[in-house]
Design the sequence.
């Protein structure tokens, strides 16, 4: 078969079985990590305060736990084989597969951060774990499948499980595979979409997180083209502040040189931010998104401004201080908070459209993927009716962000650092 020929139906069908297995396995891994993190969360935020006779909701307790979390993550980066895997501040969502011995350290660093209130989601490290295991399995059982294909399938499985639908996986992979002809593109998407679909369904059946936020139905109007564009562009500008601050913050943290030092200091800074913003500005943001929408009447303009700014700062500090995690989930929360702020300033604007536009702008600035930004906005509002408006509103945001740096640090490995780069799988 030539390089540009499409595989036949038999080959596609044969690829579906291992892809479906990867989808189920990915959902089980994600569910297991979430369950362990939730158990540790219960210990730190419920059982331990109860045993000590203190208020687990107190802001000083949050500051203490975040500082301790930083120290524990720093110890993991220092002592665990592979030093916690890739620094998620320096790699894209899909990174070089890691050797098996590195994956436990990645999982420990991720679980500590999720339970301790760090403002990062699971997407980066959980995809590292999934791709590392998938590459190992394919090499032993299906060695003829190229590693880049395995990476796409395993990444797609995890995205489907995390976001509850294979649509996000299709959008991400379409941008990655954009150079292919239409027929070839769909053929290459076949196995990844099988993995994403089975991953999403398995995680749903396990009782995973739902993204149904119960926002009111949206009825479009002509003025919405303007208001949505203004809100989305303003959200993109606010998110760009975090993008500009990210690399300098990462370099500043690395002046402390030792991972225990910069992760502990980072945890302490996150604790100080928690003293200002409270627990609503902590954690990955999924549960907090539902909470802030359900209690939106309790937040005035000033409170929402504080929440947006504190959460953006927490995202920057979390990523720059060595914590392992992704920025999509906390960016979604920040976008929702910004949309609520826009609605509070302009009450006549549709709440659903304001939230969707806020997510679109902030997520585009932080994630720098227009597809994910559009998908995230539609996911939060739970309606496809907003998509035509958002497809117009994304254009000025796109222009605004053209010269804004990506929220990704480009670093050369230093010979004297204690956080070594993990050896990539050969």
Sequence:
């Amino acid at each position: 078969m030539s390089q540009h020929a499409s595989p036949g139906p038999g080959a596609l069908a044969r690829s579906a079985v291992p892809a479906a297995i990867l989808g189920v396995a990915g959902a089980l891994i994600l569910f297991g990590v979430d369950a362990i993190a939730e158990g540790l969360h219960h210990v730190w935020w419920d059982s331990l305060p109860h045993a000590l006779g203190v208020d687990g909701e107190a802001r000083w307790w949050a500051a203490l736990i975040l500082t301790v979390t930083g120290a524990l993550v720093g110890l993991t980066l220092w002592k665990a084989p592979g030093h916690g895997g890739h620094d998620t501040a320096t790699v894209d969502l899909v990174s070089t597969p890691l050797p098996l011995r590195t994956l436990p350290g990645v999982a420990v660093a991720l679980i500590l951060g999720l339970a301790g209130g760090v403002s990062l989601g699971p997407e980066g490290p959980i995809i590292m774990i999934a791709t590392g295991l998938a590459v190992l399995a394919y090499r032993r059982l299906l060695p003829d499948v190229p590693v880049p294909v395995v990476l796409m399938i395993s990444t797609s499985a995890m995205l489907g499980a995390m976001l509850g639908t294979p649509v996000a996986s299709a959008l991400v992979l379409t941008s990655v595979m954009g150079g292919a002809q239409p027929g070839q593109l769909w053929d290459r998407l076949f196995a990844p979409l099988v993995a994403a679909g089975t991953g999403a369904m398995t995680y749903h059946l396990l009782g995973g997180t739902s993204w149904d936020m119960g926002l009111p139905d949206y009825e479009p109007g002509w003025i919405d083209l303007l208001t949505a564009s203004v809100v989305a562009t303003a959200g993109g500008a606010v998110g760009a502040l975090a993008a500009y601050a990210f690399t300098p913050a990462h370099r500043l943290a690395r002046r402390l040189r030792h991972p225990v030092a910069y992760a502990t200091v980072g945890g302490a800074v996150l604790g100080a931010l928690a003293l200002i913003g409270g627990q609503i500005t902590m954690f990955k943001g999924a549960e907090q998104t539902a909470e802030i929408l359900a209690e939106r009447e309790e937040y005035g303009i000033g409170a929402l401004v504080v929440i947006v700014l504190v959460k953006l700062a927490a995202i920057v500090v979390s990523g720059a201080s060595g914590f392992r995690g992704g920025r999509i989930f906390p960016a979604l929360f920040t976008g929702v908070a910004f949309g609520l702020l826009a609605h509070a300033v302009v009450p006549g604007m549709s709440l659903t459209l304001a939230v969707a536009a806020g997510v679109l702008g902030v997520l585009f600035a932080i994630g720098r993927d227009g597809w994910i930004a559009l998908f995230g906005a539609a996911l939060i509002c739970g309606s496809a009716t907003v998509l035509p408006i958002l497809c117009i509103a994304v254009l000025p945001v796109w222009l605004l962000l053209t010269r804004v740096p990506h929220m990704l640090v480009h670093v050369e490995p230093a010979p004297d650092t204690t956080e070594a780069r993990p050896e990539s799988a050969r």
In short: The CA atoms of residues 220 and 386 lie 7 Å apart. The radius of gyration is 21 Å.
